[in-house]
Amino acid sequence: MKNSIVAAMLWLALLPISGPAQTRQPLTEKDCWEIFPRANSYQAQQTSDGSPYREIWHGGHEDETDELLGYVFLKTLKNQEKELVLLVGIDDDGKIARVKVRGKEAIDEQFLSQFKGRSLNSDFEIARTAEELLHTPMKLKALKGDLQFSENIAKTIHGALQSAARLLGQDNENGAAQAQL
Fold first, then answer.
1. Number of C-alpha atoms within 13 angstroms, CB side, residue 32?
2. Considering only CA atoms, which of 107, 179, 117 is closest in space to residue 150?
3. DSSP summary character for residue 128
4. DSSP 58
5. Is-contact 42 57, C-beta < 8 A?
């Protein structure tokens, strides 16, 4: 009994303060519509690790064909005692369409808008100095006062891009992109 209590305490002590959370929340059609307003069909799926995502479609009318708009991934991060639920929209070209926070947690919209248009080959590194923001390619500007959380968000969004690349058949770029994180 004592050994199991000690083992449980050690396990809890080793949990990271900030990182992916284990809570699985549903990804709703409303979430998807907020990322892709043209969508009218949403197909629920799961990645190999069990993370929810949806294929987003714009259904054709009678003589038109359905058009894949992209994917929306739901990613949950834990920052200290709070959970942050991210919706990551990735278009059919493998570029980020939009990143949005679901719920009441406030994240600076300017920080999230930096991800729009980035692809698997983009730089997801967070700038550590003001000078790094002046160089090309421009690094991401961190959330004020929270460099570590900014890095965790960037890694999570990059992970969603990697999942989308596999779905789109673009995963051969994976090695180059990982080197940039």
1. 25
2. 107
3. S
4. E
5. yes
Residue recorded with tokens 């050690």 = 10
Return the structure tokens found at 64: 């038109």
Distance of alpha carbon 105 from alpha carbon 119, whole angstroms: 26
Pair 108, 144: CB distance under 8 Å: yes
Q: Which amino acid is at 10?
A: L
pTM of the shown model: 0.77
Residues in the chain: 181
Q: What is the pLDDT of residues 117-173, one digit of tens each?
A: 999 999 899 998 888 888 777 899 999 888 999 999 999 999 999 999 998 887 654
Residue 11, classified by CB atoms within 10 Å of its CB into exposed (0-12), middle (13-18) or buried (19+), is exposed
Beta bridge partners of 86: 75, 101
Contact 59, 41 (CB under 8 A): yes
Structural domain boundaries in the chain = 17-175
**Under 8 Å between Cβ of 55 and 149:** no
- Cβ pair 56, 32 in contact under 8 A: yes
CB atoms within 10 A of CB 175: 8
Give percent of the chain above pLDDT 70: 78
3-state SS record for 72-111? EEEEEEEECCEEEEEEEEEECCCCEEEEEEECCCCCCHHH
